[in-house]
Amino acid sequence: MADKLEHTPFTAESIQKKGDGFLGVEKALLIKAFFGGNALVAIIVLALITFFLFREGIEFFPQYRAEMQLFRESGQEFVGLVKEEVDQFNELQGELQDVQTKVITKLYDEGKEWEEVTALTKPFQDFVREAGASIQPLSKVVKEATTIAVGAKEKVIEYNIRKGIEGMDPSEFGFDSDEQADAFLVEKRTELTAMLPAIQEANEAFRVGLTATLENVPTVELPEAQLALDAYVKKAKKFLNKVTDFEKKLESYDPNKPFTMGQTIGGFLLGADWITASSWQDFYGIWPLLSGSLLVSVVALSYAIPFGIFAAIYINQVASPKEQNFIKPYIEFISAIPSVVIGFFGIAILGTFIRNASNWAFLSWLPFFPISERLNAYTAGTLLALMAVPTIFTLAEDALNNVPKAFKEASVAMGATRWQTIWRIQVPTALSGIISAVLLGFGRVIGETMVVLLCAGNRIAVPDLSKGPGTFFEPVHTMTGIIAQEMGEVVPGSIHYRALFCVGIFLFFLSLIINYFAQLVVRKYKISAG
Prior knowledge:
Layout: H1 2-6, H2 12-57, H3 60-73, H4 76-109, H5 114-133, H6 136-163, H7 178-193, H8 196-214, H9 223-251, H10 261-270, E1 274-275, E2 283-284, H11 287-318, H12 321-333, H13 339-357, H14 377-401, H15 405-413, H16 418-429, H17 431-446, H18 450-455, H19 479-486, H20 495-529
Helix pairs in contact: 2-20, 3-10, 3-20, 4-5, 4-6, 4-9, 5-8, 6-7, 6-8, 8-9, 11-14, 11-17, 13-14, 14-17, 15-16, 17-20, 19-20
């Protein structure tokens, strides 16, 4: 030790070196503490978001179950079986009436006078009127039953509200106890089920009337109207076959069957209706929102994946430095454009252009053209593709950059061409990164709010896949859009409020599943590559 001390002079230079060593350690510790602290903050924030998301959303299912139980006990469910039949037929009738309006408008636009328009469309209008009149007997019975059921439910709801508020007398509604309220529901439900013979009689009258109308379909001179009539007849005959199913459901209806938690969760995940602020009954089914989100995502990714990946391959492997410096910044600049600006572009320009283009004569061979809605899944998906391209491009290009240069040099040395090297060496080696880029692009698309809220049309309905490619030109609503649209209008703590949080929970789990499968794909690829 003494020898070492003797040979280590205490010069200014040696002291400076020791000081630099101590400062280097301190800097490393500071950097580690900084990034470690950021990671800790991120974990805490994520935990808090998850906690509050689940705290608000988890209460939805007990609330929704209690509401649906009252829906059953009040007899609304029984009436709803008949109401569903009437609503479906009215929807079918509405399609025919829309064609009637379009035909009449088109004739007036062509310069025809009122007398000529009336003469041309009279057989068509008479048929529409007769077909619509066939449902009137059943509609009358449903209206009477609806008044009874809704009145019973509202009376019990008011009783429960007054019972829960201190100082208010719930007996004003005729109930002194829960037992009396339950007895009242049983009485009204019995009154409704006793209407079954009248419902069956009205249903038979409807079936006979519509069948007679379909046997006398007029022949009209207007091709568009004739096509609508032929399509209506096919759909109406299919609907008549379903009338028996409605009757069987009425006969097997059991008002005393409890509404289970499984039915509640299944109704939320698979329900085809998202109806709020209804005078009849609110329903919270996420399926139309999920299917709308997926439809928009399909359109977006069908553009964003090829454009983003091929642009990354071209810039990284083919383009000259001058082209790289020109193209790359412009692609990445797209991500800096506010989504609300892109949404305004979709409303003012893209949506209008697509609708006008669908009227071009040389596109008339397409069965789903012309389209009537300028705001639809296709418009929103195209704009989302524009927003997803920079994400996919940047990450895919980084993945290609991370391929060792030795791989490319070895391929060229063995006589492979540039394109053989790109497609057989570079791209397969960077595949895990490219897959991650696509999945992050998908996350960017499905999590976007403003563009879909402005441009998707916001019609809550499950897309009709029977229309083929025309499905993409139908208005849809999305999960993110419904949260943004309705969250500001709901009462905190209400069932509607908690339903929106449940949609957020579903999005949360969807993101986890996407990332989980992404890791599986990447891991599998690494194992096979190894």
